Amino acid sequence: MHASVLARFGHALSDPTRARVLLALRDAPGYPADLAELLGVSRQSLSNHLACLRGCGLVVTVPEGRRSRYELTDPKLAHALTDLLGVVLTVDPDHCASAAENGCC
């Protein structure tokens, strides 16, 4: 059971756009149109990524009238993302420095 949960988390992080969505939501909840603009992707593409992240159990929608706000399912996830990013930067800082120039890390 634990392995499948980690695999689901890994699947969510395996796509750079989904990873960027998670990092954006780590900082604050967001609305799809704002997230699409922030990440420089189409609304349709973002919608597909958000659906995947919902399916993985990592984000939830919070209805607000006619709009929906997205946020991480649990504040612990924000801490986990920060910790994971810190480990990756520690293990391979040169790779992440060059990747950051390309909009990754």
From TrEMBL:
CDD domains: HTH_ARSR. GO terms for molecular function: cadmium ion sensor activity; DNA binding; DNA-binding transcription factor activity; lead ion binding. InterPro entries: ArsR-like_HTH (IPR011991), HTH_ArsR_DNA-bd_dom (IPR001845), HTH_Metal-responsive_Reg (IPR052543), WH-like_DNA-bd_sf (IPR036388), WH_DNA-bd_sf (IPR036390). It comes from the Bacteria. It holds the Pfam family HTH_5. Residues 1-92 form the HTH arsR-type domain. GO terms for biological process: response to cadmium ion; response to lead ion. This is Winged helix-turn-helix transcriptional regulator.
